[in-house]
Amino acid sequence: MRKPVVLITGASGEIGHGLIERLAGDPARPIITLDLNPLAPDIAKMVSREIQGSILDTNLLDRIVAEYEVDLVFHLAALLSTRSEFTPTAAHEVNVGGTLNMLEFAQKQGESHGRPVVFLYPSSIAVYGMPDLETKARAGEVKEDQYNHPITMYGCNKLYCEQLGHYYSRHYKQLAKEKLSGRVDFRCIRFPGLISAVTVPSGGTSDFAPEMIHAAARGEAYGCFVRPDTRIPFMAMPDGVDALLQLASAPRERLRRTAYNIGAFNPSAEEIRQVVVREFPGAQITWDVDPKRQGIVDSWPADVDDCAARKDFGFEPKYDYERAFSEYLIPTIKKRYGK
Ligand code: SER
Asked: Which positions ≥6 away from 161 have C-beta within 8 Å?
């Protein structure tokens, strides 16, 4: 008999790493992973099967359908925002084409075991497009349905895939004759910039915060690629992982939206620098603004309204700005770099 399993795509990335550590404690739900890159050896030990391959390989996805009863999917594989601007068509292929493949995969799984597959999708503050800095300052906390005019390929991909997920969960093949058992149960979080103490991101535009912190911990100089006054929402990785798990286990009838904002704190780049210098005296942080990356973060909101997530699935971050640094980032990072 096929055993219910959870599938994580893009599992070797930052969120995947944190998610596997949390899910590994539950022996009732074995984890299988799909990623182009191998998992870190300590993480690989926690999964029951690591598949090295692509979400664009539909033959491979069909083989997984045949072999496993996947009832929960965390589809994390994507090219991030800065990287996507260098290769926009490749980003579209992976971020949109890959997500379409995964939704089809979940639909087939649901049909084969007769109940919906819960499908968790990480969207992003990149779906927003603030037209200018004055509007950004005036808007403050942005609601999910405001300013949905992204300026990046990544943001467009995420916004569209939210819609695609909504389509699969509510309208897929409604006009077709065949009877479908179980639609995809699509649920989506719009993440702010995530800061992990144990991994360093690559290819994102919110990376200036984690890069600054990790560089200081390693004793390396860092040229921050955005202006000191740059402000976007951030969150400590454990709260991001918790939010995904809470949304995954929320009763369907409580969820009034497809995509939910979540946020925790929103320091300016200068405010981040100040804490980093306090914790790592002698840290060398300068401003080396990249106008293109600056343009991207300027188009992201300064803050998000996450009332719906708090109400519908009980989202409540453990770490505010001070606690994120004092109780999570600084102690864990110091341990990681042996300081
Ligand atoms: N933080 C991501 C990035 O910067 C967006 O989701 O690309």
From this structure: 95, 96, 99, 121, 123
HSE on the CB side for 51, CA within 13 Å?
A: 18
Q: Report pTM.
A: 0.96
Query: What amino acid positions are annotated as catalytic residues?
Result: 154
Pocket lining: 260 vs ligand 1, CB cutoff 6 Å: no
Q: Supply φ then ψ for residue 335, to 5 degrees.
A: -65, -40
Burial 167-193 (b: 16+ CB within 10 A, else e): bbbeebeeeeeeeeebbbbbbbbbbbb
Residues 307-336: pLDDT tens digits?
999 999 999 999 999 999 999 999 999 888
Find residue 5's DSSP bridge partners: 70
For ligand 1, what atom is nearest to the CA of residue 206? 4
Q: What fold, for 3-193+236-261? A: Rossmann fold (3.40.50)
Ligand 1 center to 105 CA (angstroms): 25
